[in-house]
Amino acid sequence: xxxxxxxxxxxxxxxxxxxYCSLFWGVLGLAGCATRPPEPDAVVTGVALSRERxxxxxxxxxxxxLLDVTxxxxxxxxxxxxxxAPAGQPPYALRIPYPSMRFAPKGRYxxxxxxxxxxxxxxxxxxxxxxxxxxxxxxxxxxxxxxLPQAATVEASVPLLLTHWRLVEMAGETIPxxxxxxxxxxxxxxxxxxxxxxSGGCNRFLADYEWQPQSGRLRLGQLVSNIALCLQSSGxxxxxxxxxxxxxxxxxxxxxxxxxxxxxxxLLRFEAAETPLS
Length: 278
Hints:
This protein has helices at residues 8-34, 234-245, and strands at 42-50, 61-68, 77-84, 92-98, 109-117, 120-125, 139-146, 155-156, 165-170, 173-174, 186-189, 195-199, 204-212, 217-220, 224-225, 249-254, 256-260, 266-272, 275-276. It is mostly beta strands.
Protein backbone atom coordinates (compact mmCIF):
# COMPACT_ATOMS: atom_id res chain seq x y z
CA UNK A 1 0.00 0.00 0.00
CA UNK A 2 1.36 3.41 -0.99
CA UNK A 3 0.61 6.40 1.27
CA UNK A 4 0.28 9.65 -0.63
CA UNK A 5 1.30 12.98 0.87
CA UNK A 6 -1.47 14.75 2.78
CA UNK A 7 -3.38 11.55 3.55
CA UNK A 8 -2.04 10.87 7.04
CA UNK A 9 -5.07 12.35 8.77
CA UNK A 10 -7.37 10.32 6.56
CA UNK A 11 -5.60 7.07 7.37
CA UNK A 12 -5.48 7.94 11.08
CA UNK A 13 -9.24 8.55 10.93
CA UNK A 14 -9.84 5.09 9.52
CA UNK A 15 -7.60 3.60 12.24
CA UNK A 16 -9.63 5.36 14.91
CA UNK A 17 -12.86 4.16 13.30
CA UNK A 18 -11.58 0.61 13.33
CA UNK A 19 -10.74 0.91 17.02
CA TYR A 20 -14.16 2.35 17.81
CA CYS A 21 -15.87 -0.42 15.85
CA SER A 22 -13.91 -3.05 17.73
CA LEU A 23 -14.84 -1.51 21.04
CA PHE A 24 -18.49 -1.18 19.95
CA TRP A 25 -18.87 -4.83 18.96
CA GLY A 26 -16.93 -5.91 22.02
CA VAL A 27 -19.39 -4.10 24.28
CA LEU A 28 -22.31 -5.66 22.43
CA GLY A 29 -20.77 -9.08 22.87
CA LEU A 30 -20.36 -8.51 26.61
CA ALA A 31 -23.95 -7.30 26.85
CA GLY A 32 -25.13 -10.43 25.09
CA CYS A 33 -23.20 -12.60 27.52
CA ALA A 34 -24.59 -10.67 30.50
CA THR A 35 -28.20 -11.41 29.53
CA ARG A 36 -27.60 -15.10 28.97
CA PRO A 37 -28.53 -17.27 32.00
CA PRO A 38 -25.55 -19.08 33.55
CA GLU A 39 -25.16 -22.73 32.61
CA PRO A 40 -26.08 -25.38 35.24
CA ASP A 41 -23.02 -26.96 36.82
CA ALA A 42 -24.51 -28.62 39.94
CA VAL A 43 -27.57 -30.68 40.91
CA VAL A 44 -29.99 -30.96 43.81
CA THR A 45 -30.84 -34.61 44.41
CA GLY A 46 -33.50 -36.37 46.44
CA VAL A 47 -36.76 -38.29 46.16
CA ALA A 48 -40.33 -37.10 45.58
CA LEU A 49 -42.80 -39.37 47.37
CA SER A 50 -46.57 -39.69 47.40
CA ARG A 51 -48.42 -40.05 50.69
CA GLU A 52 -50.97 -42.28 48.99
CA ARG A 53 -50.71 -45.17 46.58
CA UNK A 54 -51.67 -43.78 43.17
CA UNK A 55 -51.53 -44.96 39.56
CA UNK A 56 -51.25 -42.34 36.83
CA UNK A 57 -52.13 -42.59 33.14
CA UNK A 58 -49.29 -42.26 30.58
CA UNK A 59 -50.15 -38.61 29.89
CA UNK A 60 -49.27 -37.47 33.43
CA UNK A 61 -46.26 -35.14 33.84
CA UNK A 62 -43.94 -34.89 36.86
CA UNK A 63 -42.12 -31.62 37.51
CA UNK A 64 -39.75 -30.54 40.29
CA UNK A 65 -38.49 -26.97 40.63
CA LEU A 66 -35.63 -25.39 42.58
CA LEU A 67 -36.67 -21.90 43.69
CA ASP A 68 -34.83 -18.95 45.19
CA VAL A 69 -37.23 -17.56 47.83
CA THR A 70 -34.77 -15.18 49.48
CA UNK A 71 -36.94 -12.10 48.79
CA UNK A 72 -40.43 -12.84 50.13
CA UNK A 73 -42.03 -9.77 48.50
CA UNK A 74 -40.92 -10.84 45.01
CA UNK A 75 -41.97 -13.87 42.96
CA UNK A 76 -39.62 -16.82 43.51
CA UNK A 77 -36.76 -17.14 41.03
CA UNK A 78 -36.55 -20.45 39.14
CA UNK A 79 -32.97 -21.73 39.42
CA UNK A 80 -33.61 -25.15 37.90
CA UNK A 81 -36.38 -27.45 36.73
CA UNK A 82 -36.72 -31.18 36.21
CA UNK A 83 -39.50 -32.51 33.98
CA UNK A 84 -40.48 -36.10 33.39
CA ALA A 85 -43.07 -36.98 30.73
CA PRO A 86 -44.57 -39.47 30.95
CA ALA A 87 -44.34 -39.25 34.71
CA GLY A 88 -44.63 -42.95 35.43
CA GLN A 89 -45.43 -43.85 39.02
CA PRO A 90 -44.00 -42.40 42.26
CA PRO A 91 -41.56 -42.30 43.94
CA TYR A 92 -39.50 -40.09 41.59
CA ALA A 93 -35.74 -39.58 41.78
CA LEU A 94 -34.93 -35.87 41.98
CA ARG A 95 -32.07 -34.47 39.97
CA ILE A 96 -32.52 -30.75 39.40
CA PRO A 97 -29.65 -28.99 37.55
CA TYR A 98 -28.83 -25.43 38.60
CA PRO A 99 -25.97 -22.88 38.34
CA SER A 100 -24.01 -22.99 41.59
CA MET A 101 -22.95 -19.35 41.17
CA ARG A 102 -26.57 -18.32 41.91
CA PHE A 103 -26.64 -20.14 45.26
CA ALA A 104 -25.80 -17.33 47.70
CA PRO A 105 -24.50 -18.16 51.22
CA LYS A 106 -27.34 -16.30 52.97
CA GLY A 107 -30.07 -17.15 50.46
CA ARG A 108 -33.16 -19.30 51.01
CA TYR A 109 -33.95 -22.06 48.54
CA UNK A 110 -36.76 -24.60 48.26
CA UNK A 111 -37.80 -27.56 46.14
CA UNK A 112 -41.43 -27.98 45.07
CA UNK A 113 -42.90 -30.84 43.07
CA UNK A 114 -46.14 -31.52 41.18
CA UNK A 115 -47.80 -34.13 38.98
CA UNK A 116 -50.28 -32.81 36.41
CA UNK A 117 -52.56 -34.37 33.82
CA UNK A 118 -53.46 -32.19 30.84
CA UNK A 119 -52.70 -29.14 32.97
CA UNK A 120 -54.76 -30.24 35.98
CA UNK A 121 -53.05 -30.73 39.32
CA UNK A 122 -53.01 -34.30 40.67
CA UNK A 123 -50.21 -34.23 43.26
CA UNK A 124 -48.35 -31.33 44.86
CA UNK A 125 -45.86 -30.77 47.65
CA UNK A 126 -47.89 -29.32 50.52
CA UNK A 127 -45.24 -27.58 52.64
CA UNK A 128 -41.81 -25.96 52.35
CA UNK A 129 -38.80 -28.19 51.64
CA UNK A 130 -35.64 -26.09 52.16
CA UNK A 131 -32.36 -26.93 50.45
CA UNK A 132 -29.30 -27.17 52.75
CA UNK A 133 -26.61 -24.56 52.21
CA UNK A 134 -23.70 -27.02 52.22
CA UNK A 135 -22.96 -27.99 48.62
CA UNK A 136 -22.18 -31.58 49.59
CA UNK A 137 -25.58 -32.02 51.29
CA UNK A 138 -28.01 -30.49 48.81
CA UNK A 139 -30.33 -33.47 49.00
CA UNK A 140 -34.08 -32.98 49.60
CA UNK A 141 -36.86 -35.53 50.04
CA UNK A 142 -40.26 -34.10 49.10
CA UNK A 143 -43.69 -35.40 50.13
CA UNK A 144 -46.53 -34.82 47.68
CA UNK A 145 -50.21 -34.83 48.60
CA UNK A 146 -53.04 -35.93 46.36
CA UNK A 147 -55.15 -33.04 45.10
CA LEU A 148 -58.73 -34.28 45.09
CA PRO A 149 -60.94 -32.54 42.51
CA GLN A 150 -63.02 -29.99 44.39
CA ALA A 151 -65.57 -27.48 43.24
CA ALA A 152 -63.10 -24.60 43.50
CA THR A 153 -59.93 -26.32 42.32
CA VAL A 154 -60.94 -28.83 39.64
CA GLU A 155 -59.19 -26.82 36.89
CA ALA A 156 -56.19 -25.75 38.99
CA SER A 157 -52.71 -26.33 37.54
CA VAL A 158 -50.79 -24.92 40.56
CA PRO A 159 -51.51 -25.39 44.28
CA LEU A 160 -53.35 -22.68 46.20
CA LEU A 161 -50.90 -22.87 49.10
CA LEU A 162 -47.34 -21.47 48.84
CA THR A 163 -47.91 -20.03 45.35
CA HIS A 164 -46.98 -16.35 44.89
CA TRP A 165 -50.27 -14.83 43.69
CA ARG A 166 -49.80 -11.43 41.99
CA LEU A 167 -52.85 -9.14 41.83
CA VAL A 168 -53.82 -8.46 38.20
CA GLU A 169 -57.40 -7.15 38.46
CA MET A 170 -59.55 -5.52 41.15
CA ALA A 171 -63.26 -4.78 40.67
CA GLY A 172 -62.80 -5.03 36.91
CA GLU A 173 -59.79 -2.66 36.89
CA THR A 174 -56.50 -4.00 35.53
CA ILE A 175 -53.58 -3.56 37.92
CA PRO A 176 -50.45 -2.53 35.99
CA UNK A 177 -47.23 -4.51 36.36
CA UNK A 178 -44.77 -2.86 38.74
CA UNK A 179 -41.57 -1.22 37.59
CA UNK A 180 -38.28 -3.05 38.05
CA UNK A 181 -37.56 -3.63 41.72
CA UNK A 182 -40.99 -2.43 42.88
CA UNK A 183 -43.31 -4.66 44.90
CA UNK A 184 -46.57 -5.71 43.27
CA UNK A 185 -49.72 -6.27 45.35
CA UNK A 186 -49.74 -10.00 46.09
CA UNK A 187 -50.44 -12.70 48.65
CA UNK A 188 -49.13 -16.14 49.63
CA UNK A 189 -51.16 -18.69 51.59
CA UNK A 190 -48.86 -20.43 54.08
CA UNK A 191 -49.03 -24.20 54.46
CA UNK A 192 -47.64 -24.96 57.93
CA UNK A 193 -50.24 -22.67 59.54
CA UNK A 194 -53.47 -21.09 58.32
CA UNK A 195 -51.96 -17.68 57.69
CA UNK A 196 -51.73 -15.52 54.58
CA UNK A 197 -48.95 -12.98 54.04
CA UNK A 198 -48.50 -10.42 51.30
CA SER A 199 -48.21 -6.77 50.36
CA GLY A 200 -50.41 -4.03 49.03
CA GLY A 201 -47.51 -2.65 47.03
CA CYS A 202 -46.28 -0.53 49.94
CA ASN A 203 -47.21 -2.12 53.26
CA ARG A 204 -46.82 -5.79 54.12
CA PHE A 205 -49.70 -7.59 55.82
CA LEU A 206 -50.63 -10.88 57.43
CA ALA A 207 -53.94 -12.47 58.41
CA ASP A 208 -55.40 -15.80 59.43
CA TYR A 209 -57.57 -17.63 56.91
CA GLU A 210 -60.25 -20.33 56.86
CA TRP A 211 -60.93 -22.32 53.71
CA GLN A 212 -63.11 -25.19 52.57
CA PRO A 213 -61.91 -26.59 49.22
CA GLN A 214 -65.01 -28.77 48.93
CA SER A 215 -67.37 -25.82 48.84
CA GLY A 216 -64.96 -23.12 47.66
CA ARG A 217 -65.41 -20.99 50.77
CA LEU A 218 -62.55 -18.79 51.93
CA ARG A 219 -62.45 -16.08 54.58
CA LEU A 220 -59.63 -13.91 55.87
CA GLY A 221 -59.39 -12.61 59.42
CA GLN A 222 -58.40 -9.11 60.46
CA LEU A 223 -55.38 -7.83 58.50
CA VAL A 224 -52.33 -6.71 60.43
CA SER A 225 -49.99 -4.41 58.49
CA ASN A 226 -47.38 -1.73 58.92
CA ILE A 227 -48.31 1.89 58.25
CA ALA A 228 -45.76 3.30 55.83
CA LEU A 229 -47.14 6.06 53.56
CA CYS A 230 -46.58 5.54 49.81
CA LEU A 231 -48.35 8.13 47.70
CA GLN A 232 -48.13 6.25 44.40
CA SER A 233 -49.77 3.03 45.61
CA SER A 234 -51.86 4.15 48.60
CA GLY A 235 -55.15 4.26 46.65
CA UNK A 236 -54.81 0.75 45.23
CA UNK A 237 -53.54 -0.61 48.52
CA UNK A 238 -56.47 0.71 50.57
CA UNK A 239 -59.02 -0.78 48.18
CA UNK A 240 -57.06 -4.02 48.01
CA UNK A 241 -57.08 -4.45 51.80
CA UNK A 242 -60.80 -3.64 51.95
CA UNK A 243 -61.55 -6.19 49.22
CA UNK A 244 -59.57 -8.90 51.05
CA UNK A 245 -61.76 -8.45 54.13
CA UNK A 246 -64.89 -8.90 51.98
CA UNK A 247 -63.75 -12.23 50.48
CA UNK A 248 -66.11 -15.17 51.05
CA UNK A 249 -65.00 -17.68 48.41
CA UNK A 250 -62.46 -18.59 45.75
CA UNK A 251 -61.96 -20.46 42.50
CA UNK A 252 -58.86 -21.54 40.59
CA UNK A 253 -58.60 -21.84 36.82
CA UNK A 254 -55.22 -22.92 35.48
CA UNK A 255 -52.71 -20.47 36.93
CA UNK A 256 -55.37 -17.92 37.89
CA UNK A 257 -57.08 -17.38 41.25
CA UNK A 258 -60.33 -15.47 41.74
CA UNK A 259 -61.44 -14.32 45.18
CA UNK A 260 -65.20 -13.80 45.38
CA UNK A 261 -67.59 -11.81 47.54
CA UNK A 262 -70.70 -12.94 49.42
CA UNK A 263 -72.85 -12.97 46.27
CA UNK A 264 -70.22 -14.82 44.23
CA UNK A 265 -69.05 -11.68 42.41
CA UNK A 266 -65.33 -11.55 41.55
CA LEU A 267 -63.51 -9.08 43.79
CA LEU A 268 -59.86 -9.84 43.06
CA ARG A 269 -58.07 -11.73 40.32
CA PHE A 270 -54.53 -13.06 40.72
CA GLU A 271 -51.95 -14.79 38.51
CA ALA A 272 -49.39 -17.30 39.75
CA ALA A 273 -45.99 -15.60 39.40
CA GLU A 274 -42.43 -16.90 38.99
CA THR A 275 -39.28 -15.15 37.82
CA PRO A 276 -37.10 -16.99 35.26
CA LEU A 277 -33.37 -17.20 35.84
CA SER A 278 -31.48 -14.36 34.15
